[in-house]
Amino acid sequence: MRYIGFTLIGLCAALAFNAGAQDSTNAPATEIENFELQTDTVMVKGFGQTGSITTDDGVISVRCKESHDVTSGRKLYGISIALDSNQVHGFLVVDYDELSALINGLNFLGTISYDVTPLPSFDASFTTRSGLRIGAHSERRQGAIELYMNFSGSAKVTLTSDQFAQLQSLINQAKTSLDATRSKNSSS
Known about the structure:
alpha+beta, Secreted effector protein pipB2 fold, four-stranded antiparallel β-sheet
Protein backbone atom coordinates (compact mmCIF):
# COMPACT_ATOMS: atom_id res chain seq x y z
CA MET A 1 0.00 0.00 0.00
CA ARG A 2 2.81 2.36 0.88
CA TYR A 3 4.41 1.65 -2.53
CA ILE A 4 1.20 2.64 -4.36
CA GLY A 5 0.99 5.87 -2.36
CA PHE A 6 4.56 6.85 -3.27
CA THR A 7 3.93 5.92 -6.90
CA LEU A 8 0.80 8.09 -7.05
CA ILE A 9 2.60 11.03 -5.43
CA GLY A 10 5.49 10.69 -7.89
CA LEU A 11 3.10 10.46 -10.84
CA CYS A 12 1.16 13.56 -9.74
CA ALA A 13 4.38 15.53 -9.24
CA ALA A 14 5.66 14.50 -12.69
CA LEU A 15 2.37 15.52 -14.34
CA ALA A 16 2.31 18.86 -12.53
CA PHE A 17 5.91 19.57 -13.56
CA ASN A 18 5.21 18.58 -17.17
CA ALA A 19 2.08 20.76 -17.35
CA GLY A 20 4.03 23.76 -16.04
CA ALA A 21 6.78 23.21 -18.59
CA GLN A 22 4.25 23.13 -21.43
CA ASP A 23 2.66 26.42 -20.34
CA SER A 24 5.97 28.27 -20.31
CA THR A 25 6.98 26.83 -23.68
CA ASN A 26 3.88 28.01 -25.53
CA ALA A 27 3.47 31.43 -23.91
CA PRO A 28 4.84 34.42 -25.84
CA ALA A 29 8.12 35.57 -24.37
CA THR A 30 7.71 39.32 -24.89
CA GLU A 31 5.45 41.87 -23.28
CA ILE A 32 4.26 43.23 -26.62
CA GLU A 33 3.30 39.75 -27.90
CA ASN A 34 1.31 39.07 -24.73
CA PHE A 35 -0.29 42.51 -25.00
CA GLU A 36 -1.42 41.75 -28.56
CA LEU A 37 -3.21 38.57 -27.38
CA GLN A 38 -5.87 40.55 -25.49
CA THR A 39 -9.46 39.76 -26.32
CA ASP A 40 -12.60 41.94 -26.24
CA THR A 41 -10.74 45.00 -27.51
CA VAL A 42 -9.64 46.52 -30.80
CA MET A 43 -5.89 46.12 -31.22
CA VAL A 44 -4.13 48.33 -33.77
CA LYS A 45 -0.68 47.12 -34.82
CA GLY A 46 1.45 49.71 -36.57
CA PHE A 47 4.74 48.88 -38.20
CA GLY A 48 7.40 50.45 -40.37
CA GLN A 49 10.33 48.99 -42.26
CA THR A 50 13.66 50.28 -40.98
CA GLY A 51 15.80 48.36 -43.45
CA SER A 52 17.24 45.02 -44.46
CA ILE A 53 20.56 43.25 -44.97
CA THR A 54 21.28 40.55 -47.51
CA THR A 55 23.60 37.80 -46.26
CA ASP A 56 24.77 34.52 -47.77
CA ASP A 57 22.19 32.82 -45.54
CA GLY A 58 19.18 35.02 -46.35
CA VAL A 59 17.67 38.46 -45.82
CA ILE A 60 17.47 40.00 -42.33
CA SER A 61 14.84 42.77 -41.94
CA VAL A 62 14.32 45.18 -39.04
CA ARG A 63 10.91 46.79 -38.46
CA CYS A 64 9.50 49.11 -35.81
CA LYS A 65 6.31 48.04 -34.03
CA GLU A 66 3.59 49.91 -32.16
CA SER A 67 0.66 48.05 -30.62
CA HIS A 68 -2.31 50.10 -29.42
CA ASP A 69 -5.23 48.87 -27.31
CA VAL A 70 -7.94 51.27 -28.50
CA THR A 71 -10.20 50.54 -25.51
CA SER A 72 -7.67 51.41 -22.81
CA GLY A 73 -5.49 53.75 -24.87
CA ARG A 74 -2.35 51.85 -23.81
CA LYS A 75 0.49 51.52 -26.34
CA LEU A 76 3.54 49.28 -26.41
CA TYR A 77 6.55 49.53 -28.69
CA GLY A 78 9.28 47.26 -29.98
CA ILE A 79 11.01 45.99 -33.06
CA SER A 80 10.77 42.80 -35.07
CA ILE A 81 13.74 41.17 -36.68
CA ALA A 82 12.84 38.83 -39.53
CA LEU A 83 14.93 36.23 -41.29
CA ASP A 84 13.93 34.94 -44.68
CA SER A 85 16.21 32.15 -45.85
CA ASN A 86 16.09 28.69 -47.38
CA GLN A 87 16.12 27.14 -43.88
CA VAL A 88 14.24 29.65 -41.71
CA HIS A 89 11.27 31.94 -42.35
CA GLY A 90 10.21 33.84 -39.28
CA PHE A 91 10.58 36.80 -37.03
CA LEU A 92 11.22 37.57 -33.40
CA VAL A 93 10.02 40.56 -31.43
CA VAL A 94 12.18 42.65 -29.10
CA ASP A 95 10.36 44.79 -26.53
CA TYR A 96 11.27 48.48 -26.36
CA ASP A 97 12.61 48.05 -22.82
CA GLU A 98 15.23 45.57 -24.13
CA LEU A 99 16.56 47.81 -26.91
CA SER A 100 19.14 49.74 -24.87
CA ALA A 101 20.61 46.51 -23.49
CA LEU A 102 20.60 44.97 -26.99
CA ILE A 103 22.40 48.01 -28.41
CA ASN A 104 24.98 47.86 -25.59
CA GLY A 105 25.45 44.14 -26.24
CA LEU A 106 25.96 44.79 -29.96
CA ASN A 107 28.50 47.52 -29.16
CA PHE A 108 30.47 45.05 -27.02
CA LEU A 109 30.26 42.20 -29.54
CA GLY A 110 31.20 44.48 -32.44
CA THR A 111 34.51 45.39 -30.79
CA ILE A 112 35.30 42.05 -29.12
CA SER A 113 38.86 40.77 -29.35
CA TYR A 114 40.78 37.70 -28.29
CA ASP A 115 41.63 39.51 -25.05
CA VAL A 116 38.10 38.76 -23.77
CA THR A 117 39.48 35.55 -22.22
CA PRO A 118 42.92 34.01 -21.72
CA LEU A 119 41.56 30.68 -23.00
CA PRO A 120 42.04 29.70 -26.64
CA SER A 121 38.33 29.66 -27.63
CA PHE A 122 35.27 31.70 -26.75
CA ASP A 123 31.62 32.30 -27.50
CA ALA A 124 30.09 35.59 -26.37
CA SER A 125 26.44 36.35 -27.02
CA PHE A 126 23.44 38.49 -26.16
CA THR A 127 20.02 36.83 -26.07
CA THR A 128 16.65 38.61 -25.94
CA ARG A 129 13.55 37.29 -24.18
CA SER A 130 12.16 36.09 -27.50
CA GLY A 131 15.26 34.02 -28.26
CA LEU A 132 17.10 36.27 -30.69
CA ARG A 133 20.76 35.50 -30.10
CA ILE A 134 23.57 37.62 -31.52
CA GLY A 135 27.13 36.61 -30.81
CA ALA A 136 30.82 36.31 -31.56
CA HIS A 137 32.74 33.05 -31.67
CA SER A 138 36.31 31.90 -32.11
CA GLU A 139 37.83 28.42 -31.94
CA ARG A 140 41.43 29.60 -31.79
CA ARG A 141 43.26 32.81 -31.17
CA GLN A 142 43.93 33.58 -34.82
CA GLY A 143 42.04 34.73 -37.89
CA ALA A 144 38.73 36.51 -37.89
CA ILE A 145 36.19 36.28 -35.09
CA GLU A 146 32.91 34.85 -36.40
CA LEU A 147 29.91 37.14 -35.84
CA TYR A 148 26.49 35.51 -36.01
CA MET A 149 22.82 35.60 -35.09
CA ASN A 150 20.24 32.89 -34.68
CA PHE A 151 16.56 32.59 -33.92
CA SER A 152 15.52 30.41 -30.97
CA GLY A 153 18.00 27.64 -31.60
CA SER A 154 17.87 27.68 -35.43
CA ALA A 155 21.05 27.45 -37.48
CA LYS A 156 23.51 30.31 -37.12
CA VAL A 157 23.43 33.07 -39.71
CA THR A 158 27.03 34.17 -40.16
CA LEU A 159 27.53 37.92 -40.51
CA THR A 160 30.53 39.72 -41.96
CA SER A 161 31.80 42.64 -39.90
CA ASP A 162 30.11 45.02 -42.39
CA GLN A 163 26.78 43.14 -42.11
CA PHE A 164 27.06 43.17 -38.32
CA ALA A 165 27.65 46.94 -38.43
CA GLN A 166 24.59 47.31 -40.72
CA LEU A 167 22.44 45.30 -38.30
CA GLN A 168 23.71 47.42 -35.43
CA SER A 169 22.88 50.58 -37.37
CA LEU A 170 19.38 49.37 -38.28
CA ILE A 171 18.58 48.55 -34.64
CA ASN A 172 19.87 51.97 -33.57
CA GLN A 173 17.74 53.64 -36.28
CA ALA A 174 14.68 51.67 -35.17
CA LYS A 175 15.16 52.76 -31.55
CA THR A 176 15.60 56.41 -32.63
CA SER A 177 12.40 56.16 -34.68
CA LEU A 178 10.51 54.61 -31.75
CA ASP A 179 11.84 57.31 -29.38
CA ALA A 180 10.43 59.98 -31.72
CA THR A 181 7.08 58.15 -32.02
CA ARG A 182 6.82 57.71 -28.25
CA SER A 183 7.67 61.36 -27.68
CA LYS A 184 5.07 62.48 -30.22
CA ASN A 185 2.42 60.21 -28.64
CA SER A 186 3.13 61.35 -25.08
CA SER A 187 2.75 65.02 -26.03
CA SER A 188 -0.64 64.51 -27.73
